[in-house]
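hey m, so remember when u said the tokens were messed up on ur end? i reran from scratch. heres the input so u can diff it against urs
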Amino acid sequence: MSPAPDSRRVYTVTEINLLAQRLLQESFPSVRVAGEISGFHHQQPSGHMYFDLKDGRCVLRCALFRASQREMRFQPANGLQVEAAGRLTIYEARGSYQLVVERLEEAGLGELQRRFEELRARLQAEGLFDEARKRPLPAFPRTLAVVTSAGGAVIHDIIQVARRRWPGIRILLCPVQVQGAGAAEDVARGIARVNREGSAEVLIVARGGGPMEDLWAFNEEAVVRAVAGSAIPVISAVGHETDFTLCDFAADLRAPTPSAAAERAVPERTEQAAALARRRERLELAMRAALERRALHLRALRGSYALGRPRDLLAQRMQGLDELERRLVRAAAQGRARQAERLERARTHLLALSPAQVMGRGFCYLEGARDGRPVTSVSGLAVGQAVFLVLRDGRAGARVETVEPTGPRAR
């Protein structure tokens, strides 16, 4: 056993930490601790892992060195319930005690992780996380709204990055509580306020990193539904790159950090200037090419015979018009002659068929005395019937003496 400390001696900090470490190691040479992993981040370059074990009331710091990970069959993550076997010791440099884990076994999902998965499955079934709901961000927003804590580095980083990239951007801060009791309701109200105000074209919901319990407000149903129901496109920037919340799934875009959210929310001035310069160069090249084509065409026109001797060209056009006029007059005269010839033939034909012409040669025809109709057959005559003989210059009355049919009927 270690000797008891001498109350009359003045110890250095290092000596006190060494004494406490010796007492702790002798009292707890081997322990098993059950709890939920919290505050776990990605593995260090050395390969060592650092995290907390917590229960409903307290937190215990843990160190899992690379050599002790060989038989581990799972990847530690925040929210997992585990059993850790190891020894208690003190980290001398800070004077804080910790559990040096020699074996880590998975015991199941923690309560927060279970709630996370249950709510995620239910909201996903409703379609709140569907990719088809995601909207593109505006290319050149004039106003950027940020729902986050008024203090801390998050809003400072967003303002700095956004204004460096696009100096004219207007940033509207909606300060909210991002951790603890009532935080979820406050964040949801902040999102609703930004939507009611209506001047922002893009909205960032942001918070710095932390363990799962610190980020839990962004896993609450009220916040997730507020993000999904926002009329303004939302970028979720909650936690660090390895942290995921349900808010990330409902947002139109997830950014790994608040600074990255600002980069995605606004364009970069120098990039846009370079793009405009490239477009201007392409436009100038196209205009020069078009002008060169027009110049070539103009030179060709100047060198042409027609434009070189306009009077000759005009004389040829006038001569052509005269020729067309002569053709038109000749065609009209020929047409009139043909029409006159056709009319004369028709008149001669009509005259030849005229009864007056026939009667002029001594012919006449009979007319009934009663009806004045021409008699065309002896069948229409009767002996003693009064008729008229119609001649060229008049008619004479007569009476039928005999009716003598001719042809087949007479026989």
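this time it looks ok to me. The chain has three domains: 13-109, 114-269, 363-410. if urs says something different then somethings off w ur setup not the seq
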